[in-house]
Write a structure and sequence with these properties.
Layout: E1 11-13, H1 15-28, H2 33-48, H3 59-67, E2 78-83, E3 86-90, H4 96-114, E4 116-124, H5 131-139, E5 142-148, E6 152-154, E7 164-165, E8 169-173, E9 181-185, H6 192-200, E10 210-211, E11 217-218, H7 221-226, E12 228-229, H8 235-249, E13 261-262, E14 266-267, E15 272-280, H9 287-302, H10 317-329, E16 331-333, H11 335-348
Parallel strand pairs: 3-4
Antiparallel strand pairs: 1-16, 2-3, 4-15, 5-8, 5-15, 6-7, 8-9, 10-11, 10-12, 13-14
Helix pairs in contact: 1-2, 2-4, 4-5
């Protein structure tokens, strides 16, 4: 989790108003009401939880996918093959959120029947913040594990060529009587979207996030966008990123690495892959015992001595706090995001105004 700089100076918009505004854009791109709501919910979820790299900053890119790049606004996912707790789903070149939500709900139903499930999704596209899906499993009192391939932005350890994606993974454990414990993390030190936001704000990125095109560490976001994202944990991060990418693509017809596109020409529509693993806790341990164990773990974690009076946060706790704050005071939007959204409105010739909603 990263706090973005200077959000306190930015204009804010009520989440419900932003949801209505964004949904109207996707409706204008020939999505039906239900699918437009799904994609919008994913973006607002991310912005509320402070994951702005996967929030409404993505709207212009998504509109381009729907109007120019060939993503099908009316694509319907379907189960291609299934056996026991495993299934292979084809997203039918729908928006990534459509196929991914379909796959997660299918995986939950499978886990309720078989105890555990694995669902591979092919024919997909960029699906937004992964914790939106893993938390669906937690709501069903299950463990959720979700991963996706991503466009290559990292090099093999010791290499120079962009052939490895940051390939994020999200894991969520239900809290049941407390907040869910969830992590949604790329296997690079950051994401391309986070660097874009720093570039929009004309702010330096933290050291250790990226290399420039010559392989030298940089804190300049523009040079970072041209260069390489640094992996977490050195060679270990590259290895883990490869494995998440493989789980997302090798067990289906989805494309891995540079076969899915690149950061210059963009993604190839309908070739992304994701995977969804759901574990039904109640089939392994009774929920009362599970809750007791969770409570004990949280108590031990939170009672740990802090270094230099630092706060000690559980996985997902910062995002939960940001959601409460942003729900109350509105979602912050930087000037470039506002300008880009206004451009989308103009290009679609919509009779709506973003500026009237800002405060």
């Amino acid at each position: 989790m990263v706090y973005y700089p200077n959000t306190e100076k930015e204009l804010r918009i009520d989440a419900s108003n932003l949801k209505t505004f964004v949904k109207s854009i996707f409706l204008a791109c020939n999505m039906n009401n239900e699918d437009a709501s799904v994609v919008t919910e994913s973006l607002i979820h991310a912005d509320l939880r402070g994951i702005h790299s996967h929030g409404v900053i993505r709207v212009p890119d998504y509109v381009k996918k729907l109007q120019v790049d060939g993503v099908d606004p009316s694509g319907n996912p379907f189960v291609l093959k299934e056996f026991g707790g495993t299934s292979r789903v084809n997203g039918n070149n729908s928006m990534g959120q459509i196929g991914a939500k379909f796959s997660m709900l299918h995986a939950i139903n499978k886990a309720k029947k078989f105890g555990i499930s694995y669902v591979s999704l092919e024919g997909s596209n960029h699906c937004g913040a992964l914790d939106w899906y893993s938390l669906m499993a937690s709501e069903a009192k299950c463990v959720g594990i979700v991963g996706t391939n991503a466009l290559p932005t990292m090099a093999p350890w010791g290499g120079m060529d962009k052939i490895v994606g940051i390939n994020p993974i999200s894991i969520s454990f239900p809290g049941i009587n407390c907040d869910d414990l969830v992590i949604d993390a790329s296997l690079g030190q950051t994401s391309h979207g986070k660097i874009r936001i720093y570039a929009q704000k004309k702010e330096k990125i933290p050291e250790g996030w990226a290399f420039d095109k010559d392989g030298l560490p940089t804190s300049d976001p523009e040079k970072a966008l041209e260069g390489l994202i640094q992996p977490i944990g050195g060679f270990k991060g590259i290895g883990l990123a490869m494995m998440v990418g493989m789980l997302s693509t090798m067990l289906s017809d989805a494309k891995y690495g540079s076969n899915s596109g690149n950061m210059i020409d963009g993604a190839i529509s309908g070739v992304d892959g994701q995977f969804f693993i759901v574990i039904n806790i109640g089939e392994l341990i009774d929920l009362d015992t599970y809750q007791t164990k969770i409570n004990e773990m949280i108590r031990e974690f939170k009672s740990s001595r802090s270094l230099k009076n630092n706060n000690i946060y559980l996985p997902g706790e910062i995002e939960n706090q940001l959601k409460i704050h942003n729900t109350k005071f509105g979602i912050p939007l930087n000037n470039e995001t506002i300008s880009n959204l206004n451009d989308v409105i103009d290009n679609l010739q919509l009779n709506i105004s973003l500026n009237d909603l800002l405060k």
